[in-house]
Amino acid sequence: MGPTKANVYDLVISKGLCSYCGACVAVCPRGALRLGVDAPEFDREACADCSLCAKVCPVLNDALPVRELPARLYVGRAASEELRRRAQSGGVVTALITYALASGLVGAVLATAGDASEPQKAVPVVLRSPDEAPAASGSRFSYSPVLALVPEASRSSASLCVVGLPCHMRALRLAQERLRGPWLSVKLTIGLLCFGCLPYSSLRDKLLSEFGVNPAEVERVNVRRGVVIVSTRSGAAASAPLREVGGLAGPACLRCQHFFPPACDVAVGSSGAPDGHSVIIPYTEVGERLVSSASEEGLLEAQEAGEEVRAELAKLATLKRRRARHRYKSARHTH
Questions:
Q1: CATH number at residue 236
Q2: Which residue of 27, 47, 166, 295 has the fewest C-beta atoms within 10 A of its own C-beta?
């Protein structure tokens, strides 16, 4: 028998609005939702009609307030030159999770790596040792169902760190408050500043059509000052204004108003920072201690950010909120 209550396939996935955070896959008790290519696959006959998936969906439940900047924020980079070469925008996240694993603060980190054959295809991974941390370095502009890994990872570690986007942070908070269980094993959260990303098939098409680049050859995609820069393994590079390539945001992202990830301990992103650096925004005491401890241990170089960084971040946050409001008004007018 098919479902009669709310489920994320009918309400979100079938409408192309899924941000593919992976939370629904993790909470489904019958395996009716499984990992797919660009979104979860749905087995209607297996659906238990429980609506757990709808309870943790960040698209259906966006009650968290939009975050502002705290009093203190930093600009920094990894202290290791080798790590900076391997990473993107200074390797700050890699340095932080290296410290978290090396110090025993957490037993495992749930993050995103790149597919071996197509590096911009996001693949959720569990990292259990400091040596594994660089595997998740670099930015990827495709959806990653990181939260699907929480239940299994929690069975072997009582203390987890999740690295994710605003949608991941919102879904994680929903699961912790409404379902508890394995979700309470997440003790540390590192959020990524986000203006949007895409289903991988859309990103793949864009790399081919707009940049003329084989996705298998792409080593890195970066966005700096409104320009998309695609670097290949051979050392070649192609660039285009973000506006001209239609942006790098899927339908779910266009409706999202969160530039600063809600409900995270510390947020990190390249926006507003000098080249080779990232902005570091501690939101909780846990986040502040993580940054200070990683610095004291020689893994991170950080200094307080100037007012120009704060102004740039505030501007980008306002732009994302305006985009979401415009999208919402357009959708209401259409319907």
A1: 3.10.450.750
A2: 295
Tens digits of residue pLDDT in 70-129 = 999 999 999 999 989 888 899 999 999 999 999 999 999 999 999 989 888 999 999 999
* C-beta separation of 246 from 206 below 8 A: yes
Contact in structure between 265 and 292 (CB atoms under 8 Å): no
**Block mean pLDDT (10 aa), the chain, length 335:** 70 96 98 96 96 97 89 97 89 98 98 92 97 92 97 96 98 97 98 94 90 89 86 87 81 94 97 94 98 98 97 95 79 48
Tell me: do 97 and 143 sit in the same domain: yes
Per residue in 80-92, pLDDT (tens digit) is 999 898 888 999 9
CA-nearest of 201, 125, 210, 198 to 163 is 125
Q: Domain count of the chain?
A: 3
What's 272's DSSP letter? T
CB-based contacts of 69, cutoff 8 Å, min separation 6: 260, 281, 310, 313, 314
Residue 246 DSSP SS3: coil
In whole angstroms, what is the distance from residue 67 CA to residue 258 CA? 7
Tokens for 150?
Answer: 């929480």
Which parts of the chain fold into alpha helices (H)? 8-11, 23-27, 52-56, 81-86, 92-102, 150-156, 166-178, 200-211, 251-254, 285-296, 307-334
Task: Tell whether 237 and 136 lie within a shared domain.
Answer: no
Nearby residues of 111 by Cβ (< 8 Å), 6 or more positions away? 93, 97, 124, 125, 127, 136, 146, 162, 163
